[in-house]
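Appendix B, record 7
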Amino acid sequence: MRRWPGWTGVLFAVAFYCLSFTPSLVPRTWALQAVAAGVTAAAGYGVGAFLGCAARRCGLRPGERLVRIGRLALAVLGTAGVVAVTARSVTWQGDMRRAVGMDPRIPWWQWLLVPFVALVLSALIVLLARALRLGTRALARLLERVIPRQVALAGAAALVTVVVVGIVQGFLLRGLLAVAESSASLANSSTTAGIVRPVLPTLSGSPSSLETWPSLGSKGRDFVGRASTKADIAAFTGRPAMDPIRVYVGLKSAPTLHERAELAVRELERTGAFRRKVLVVFGTTGSGWVNENLAKPLEYMYGGDSALVTVQYSYLPSWISFLTESEAADAGRSLFDAVYAHWSTLPAAQRPKLYVSGESLGSFASEKAFDGKLSEMVARSDGALLVGPTLQNPMWEQIGRDRDPGSQLWLPVYQDGRSVRFARRAPDLQSPPAPWPSPRIVYLQNGSDPVTWWSPDLLGSSPAWLDRPRAPDVSPDMQWYPLVTFWQVTCDLAGADGVPVGYGHRFGTLPVAAWAAVSQPPGWTAADTTRLERRLEAQQEPH
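Structure tokens (predicted):
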């Protein structure tokens, strides 16, 4: 614990620290950069310390004079490198901010804090690692009294590992989850300002509904409370309209996912949803949120002759739900299977077109409704719109892996675009210029979205999305480095929504053009798409 850091460890820590400042997917705040630099420097120290130990074990010990010269050179050059890279990073971050339409000016005083915060963080991590090693050795010495030394060392290491994992999972993780769940539960019981209980029988939570207003939860009340009205739709189209149907079943409405799915089907029957022109089954994010820019377009495109349905499976944020639950997959499968079972019994000429949609973790839930198989989605639906997929999306992963030769992972072409197409801008939907029969499936994804590209594989291998040519929204200066890039993209997750529309995890009104391509509403024109995009932008729905 008292030993000064080894010079090989410090050398690698400085190198990793400097590399952590290189451009990544989205601009970072100084605080995020400090975290990225501190964690990466600690990882670099670990690598350097290991290599130094290995070299000594192999008999490679430099002379005392060479060690003194090396330490002096490292102190001078390392300090100069840290100062130079920290200063240079202001320019890098300014360039990245300018590329996404943000103010490139960054307060210098904030970035001056980065090396100091990073030093403290990395030192704490190294001290924690040393404490664990010290504890392991102390335990091994006790075990040596009754068992051979090598066995004692292995046993001590195994025991300490089990204890640490147990503390993290059983104490720290459970405690954090309890706090997060308590906070999320309070948020779930709140109601957004301006949202009131609906009176229309076409909406869940109304007096006619099988769902009570409180049982919907916060995101459910937002979903039904923001439904388009026939007056708004008629004003936009210039023709008579219907009140759209929106069905939402909250987490507390029934104890199991199966019961919630069955309740959703009964609510669809009550509202007459199976007699509408289109019916969309949504997968939600972890908290139960559905993006209004995904929900509203079809309501306008079909004059309100539409129905939307979803169920809530959690009220925790997506990143927690994703790490601790498999319910997103179960929810997507339970709801779609229940809806499909009833829908498939109706005469083909009288039942609505059946679509699926979801954003982020919701896209994962939508894919799992079909066991992650494109053939199943094509066979059992009339199309899909999936936005901002995650690394766990099985269908998305398979399509990217088997994409047509010559296409890039950030905008892949699969089977010449026969069933599924990818877009980051509306014109991408017309590529490739080959026949595109129904059912049509569209993925919207940005090249700079860390939600899509984060993966543990970044620890040890360069990702295909960094191959050239790159997506226009990915910096040409971004490079892959072992360990470093993983922590960079991990920190980028925190800023994925903090960039303008069209970058990171922000898609704006692009779903309007995507829904027009997927559903091909009769009489709908490109001018209508532009008008609806402007209308949704003016409504300024919260993201």
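Remarks on this record: The first strand starts at residue 245 and ends at 249. The mean pLDDT is 90.
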